[in-house]
């Protein structure tokens, strides 16, 4: 096997603990809503998630957000004020109403008709999410170990301004990387094979000399496999496997990367 010369990392839920950020934000905001309305926080969170997905999929920007890889809950706090595509400007116009209406429809499903409270909760969600940038405990230990030994590239789906805001929340992260690719700036997101080929061009490495590490089979792993890049699925919480998208490696902790790199380079 070829010596591994580069490692590409996904950002959300691979290096940044986005699920924790989103979960804690919902808990904080829904508990305040419970105090104001009596609606159980857990039930309201479920309703907001449901209504947000429904609204998000109803907009004519939905196909674009799927192409770039922007999920409904990012829309609940993103500004969409970056990116050159016209769809980002449409999203920028849509998000104030999207935030309010997601909470309004959720409250209404419990019989609470209060547009002012819905708007307040929507704005509070955005502020609380911004206050919660988390990384995993192993993130910087692994990057410290890899830095200088292989090239490092960050490959993330999302709106350029939102992903940049996430990175700005953890300013010590970006200096580890030789290259950063945000799908909204490139024009297509993972799993489109073109963004993986673009990563290889920037790195100057062959597919067999490169590893892609990510938490999502349908984007990180599927695209890496299509590009011929060795794929490593970080599955920290025992997600269900997919019979059709089979990663080259599955790990539960980023430190397991070292053995993979060593073994492939020694073969």
Number of strands: 6
The percent range for strand residues is 5-15%
Low-confidence stretches: none
Helix percentage: 40-55%
Q: According to CATH, what is the class of the largest domain?
A: Alpha Beta
CATH superfamily (homologous) name of the largest domain: HAD superfamily/HAD-like
Span between termini: 6 Å
H/I helix tally: 12
Count of folded domains: 2
Provide mean pLDDT, rounded. Answer: 95
Which architecture of the largest domain does the CATH hierarchy give at level 2? 3-Layer(aba) Sandwich
Structural class: alpha/beta
Radius of gyration from the CA trace?
20 Å
How would you sum up the major sheet? 6 strands, parallel
CATH topology grouping of the largest domain: Rossmann fold
Q: Give the strand order, joined by hyphens, for the main sheet.
A: 3-2-1-4-5-6
Shape: elongated
SSE succession: EHHHHHHHEHEHHEHEEH
InterPro entries: HAD-like_hydrolase (IPR051400), HAD-like_sf (IPR036412), HAD-SF_hydro_IA (IPR006439), HAD_sf (IPR023214), PSP_YsaA (IPR044266)
Family: Belongs to the HAD-like hydrolase superfamily.
Function: Catalyzes the last step of the phosphorylated serine biosynthetic pathway, i.e. dephosphorylation of O-phospho-L-serine to form L-serine.
Protein name: Phosphoserine phosphatase
């Amino acid at each position: 096997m070829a010596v591994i010369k580069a490692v590409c990392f996904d950002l959300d839920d691979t290096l940044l603990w986005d699920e924790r950020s989103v979960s804690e934000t919902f808990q904080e905001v829904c508990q305040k809503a419970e105090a104001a309305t009596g609606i159980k926080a857990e039930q309201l969170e479920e309703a907001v998630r449901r209504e947000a997905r429904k609204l998000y999929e109803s907009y004519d920007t939905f196909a674009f957000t799927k192409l770039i890889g922007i999920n409904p809950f990012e829309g609940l706090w993103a500004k969409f004020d970056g990116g050159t595509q016209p769809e980002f400007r449409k999203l920028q116009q849509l998000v104030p109403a999207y935030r309010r209406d997601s909470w309004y429809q959720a409250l209404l499903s419990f019989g609470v008709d209060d547009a002012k409270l819905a708007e307040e909760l929507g704005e509070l969600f955005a502020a609380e999410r911004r206050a919660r940038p988390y990384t995993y405990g192993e993130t910087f230990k692994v990057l410290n170990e890899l830095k200088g030994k292989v090239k490092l590239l960050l490959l993330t789906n999302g709106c350029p301004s939102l992903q940049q805001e996430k990175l700005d929340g953890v300013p010590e992260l970006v200096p580890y990387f030789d290259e950063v690719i945000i799908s909204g700036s490139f024009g297509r997101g993972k799993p489109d094979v073109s963004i993986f080929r673009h990563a290889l061009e920037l790195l100057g490495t062959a597919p067999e000399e490169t590893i892609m590490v990510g938490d999502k089979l349908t984007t990180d792993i599927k695209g890496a496999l299509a590009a011929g890049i060795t794929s490593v699925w970080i599955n920290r919480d025992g997600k269900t496997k997919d019979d059709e998208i089979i990663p080259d490696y599955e790990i539960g902790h980023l430190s397991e990367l070292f053995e993979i790199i060593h073994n492939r380079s020694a073969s």
